[in-house]
Write a structure and sequence with these properties.
By secondary structure, this protein is mostly beta strands. The protein has one domain: Hexapeptide repeat proteins (UDP N-Acetylglucosamine Acyltransferase, domain 1, 3 Solenoid). It has one helix and 21 strands.
């Protein structure tokens, strides 16, 4: 009896996961979508997708589990063939283009906008933004917790080391390292 219940539980769990995945994937199919049938999306993703967003998703793209993806009205998200994304945040109000054969690692964030602000009197808007574009080339690997800010272009064949904040263009064939110095002090007794 226990093995029958276990088998039923596994089948039910697989069915639920399949439905969740299909449901998540369907959000990407808007009127402006061009999505290859091999596109895969995992579980536990948070998606905030406008019905008039535009998607270009290539062959064998995988958006694995636990990602936060926002693509607002009239925004455009493009992801090239064979790109793999996991546990990332992509916030697109304008345009984000990710190339082919990229591996975007845990905690990575891509943002194509900033909050608007005024100087006199100083105030930061919660709902108004300055919107830009992010363009990432082919064969990019991001280490953990990389942040890519608006109006940045990253060339082909780039490695972005863990913890990098990318706020200006990166040329092709580069490795970017987040240089940190550790100051070790002895605890005095």
């Amino acid at each position: 009896m226990k093995s029958i219940l276990g088998s039923i539980f596994i089948k039910l769990n697989n069915f639920i996961n399949s439905c969740i995945t299909k449901s998540n994937k369907s959000l990407f199919f808007t009127k402006k979508s061009n999505i290859h049938h091999s596109f895969k999306i995992g579980r536990d993703n948070f998606l905030d997708i406008s019905s008039d967003a535009e998607f270009n998703i290539g062959q064998n793209v995988t958006i694995n589990q636990s990602n936060f993806i926002t693509v607002k009205s009239n925004a455009k998200l493009s992801i090239g063939d064979n790109t793999y994304i996991t546990r990332a945040t992509i916030s697109c109000l304008g345009e984000i283009e990710i190339g082919k054969n990229c591996i975007l690692g845990e905690g990575m964030k891509i943002v194509d906008h900033n909050h608007s602000y005024t100087k006199d009197p100083f105030s930061v808007s919660k709902t108004d933004f300055t919107i830009g574009k992010v363009k990432m080339g082919n064969n990019i690997w991001t280490g953990a917790n990389v942040v890519i800010l608006k109006d940045v272009t990253i060339g082909d064949n780039v490695i972005l080391g863990a913890g990098c904040v990318v706020h200006k263009d990166i040329p092709a064939n580069s490795i970017i390292i987040n240089k940190q110095e550790h100051l070790v002090k002895k605890i005095e007794q």
